[in-house]
Amino acid sequence: MKTLSKKAKRELAAIAALRDEDIDTSDIPELTEEQLRKAVRGRMYRPVKKPVSLRLDADVIEWLKAQGAGYQTRVNSILRNLMLRSRKKAV
Known about the structure:
By secondary structure, this protein is mainly α. It has a domain at about 50-90. Helix content is about 50%, strand content about 0%. It contains four helices and no strands. The chain has helices at about 5-15, 35-40, 60-65, 70-90.
């Protein structure tokens, strides 16, 4: 992991010390109510991938591979959908 230089630390500290009203946002247009209504949270979110070793039944692997390339991505998608459904039920 790369550490920040003293200069970068000073610059970040100076930015953090700014009050909101002192920040010039004149070149950034305000979002409209319609844009905020249509906003999608997490659209650009990309979870960190971690390599794992996983034992699956042979017929499950064959079924996944029979659907074409990208079976590991499909496994992740299936598990993510199950996880999200489980979280919704818990709330």
